Amino acid sequence: MTDAITSDNEYRQQRLANMAALKELGYEPFGRAFERTGRLSEIRAAFEEEKPVTAAGRLTTIRDMGKSIFADINDGSDRFQIYVQKKAVGEDVFDAFKLLDIGDHIGVDGELFITRTEEPTIKITSWTLLSKALLPLPEKWHGLKDVESRYRQRYLDLISNPDSRALFNRRIATIREIRNYLSNKGFYEVETPMMQQQAGGAAARPFATHYTALDSEMYLRIAPELYLKRLLVGGFDKVFELNRNFRNEGLDRTHNPEFTMLEIYEAYTDVSGMRELIQGMITHVADTVYGTLKVGSEAQPVDLSLPWREATYRELIVERMGDDWYDLSLDDARAKAEAEGLDLDPAWDMLMVTHEVYEKLIEKTLQQPTFVTRLPAQLVPLAKACPDDPSVVDVFELVIAGQEVAPAYTEMNDPIEQRSRLNSQAGEDAEKVDEEFLTALEHGMPPAGGMGVGIDRLVMILSGVDAIRDVILFPQLKSRE
RNA sequence: GGAGGUGUAGCUCAGUUGGCAGAGCAGCUGACUCUUAAUCAGCGGGUCCAGGGUUCGAGUCCCUGCACCUCUACCA
User: Most CB atoms within 10 A, among A120, A223, A272, A446?
Assistant: First the structure.
């Protein structure tokens, strides 16, 4: 099955024979550029009976009626019916057409008409072979269901499963609309290094590689953050980067080792500026791509109507675990959490127990968009403290459909404080601290709000799919050797 | 890392108690000038994921491995 990619079976033999026969008749099996009136979707949109058109596409079905043939071609924009009549094209051209197989790319000249069953159709006068397909397509009715084949041979999935193609069209449109939105707000899109001497800006195991010319170890970035902040120092007041991050960690339903991340930084604002921005951005995408603010799936409906709920971390904990939660002794709190079915590490303190409650019992239940604010400072070492309470930080986590979609910070711009936090984070690996970044901060980074948005996850939530592999064209899979 | 599930024709799937390997679509031959999952008649097509084992006999039972899926654990 999936490993028989170039298997030499009867289908391939038959198609090779058809190709040889066509060659014999003067048809070049692998053609060159072919000028068409337009995409099939454009031809359909400008349909006019008796209008001459030139079109191209892949043959997807053939209905042979004897002296006339109906077939469908598809160019990725649309499917369109063509009609080949022996009387109209002549016997030689007609007989040669019968040597075509489903999957072949052809170009056609003809005239538009509407059949008795009211199907817009091209009645062809001539056709050209553009590319012979030597292997068959998946079945027309059931499509390609085998999950592994759908990922490994995504092209077959895209050809035979219209839902999959539609989902990737939405992903493409989502990314385009995010860029439009941010560009219209005056943000500059920048590109910063994906290969870094130190993989900073997040805590994750990086992929390591070796740069031969410099004879040095390099890492694929786990986040662009530290470079984007250098640009804040350099005078870019509104920047974003929308591109790939790489993390050398496990694979599962919601994690792919390379994933698409949007990071946004804006000078002279703070976390509340980010809140306005993300609400505007996501509702813009929903409006323009989905045409509605009611998105997600039937099982996981999401209503993006504004305003979105805002709740402090503490409020959510108390709401779930009772007014007295923060007055309980560690033992009593543990007992209460365990009674809720949580499995707690004996070494955990109150902070960790409480956070386990948040992650396991609360976050997953936040179906509608919720800004969780005022997180404990210990959990978020790189954000600024709230002015009225240094034990909590001025951040939010936007949670939708039980998933963290966008964390935002009022960014740390004090180089002294930043250095001490990075040092304590690095522990004994002092060389892991990005000194050049700290130097940049000492030149003065304006106060700023910053935010990260996991694009794959956003697409999953808006489209209501639950596997990240379904929104990444070529997800990571193990080698089959 | 752990547990469970799946793997059969190009594709989608059946396969009973261990007893000749099945269907639909696709392919091939033939019929058919408005079909659209075209229809009708006929014909081919298998490394049953791989490797061992049990048995007179294994797609089916046992062991090992591989891939994929789900749950779980780890992962700021």
Answer: A223
pLDDT tens across A215-243, in order? 999 999 999 999 999 999 999 999 999 99
Of residues A243, A139, A162, A256, the one with CA closest to residue A207: A256
**H helices then E strands: how many in chain A?**
15, 19
CA triplet A115, A119, A124: central angle to 5 degrees? 65
Residue nearest to nucleotide B67 (CA to C1'): A480
Strand B bases within 7 angstroms of protein beta carbons? 7-13, 24-28, 31-39, 44-45, 66-76
**Separation between the CA of A24 and the C1’ of B67 (whole angstroms):** 43
Radius of gyration of chain A (CA): 29
pTM for the whole structure: 0.92
| pLDDT at A374 exceeding the cut of 50 | yes
Q: Is A180 helix (H, G, I), strand (E, B) or coil?
A: helix
E-state strands within A224-349: 238-246, 258-267, 294-296, 301-303, 309-312
* CA–CA separation, A75 and A284 (whole Å): 30
Domains in chain A: ranges and CATH: 3-137 (2.40.50.140), 159-308+368-471 (3.30.930.10)
pLDDT at A4: 37
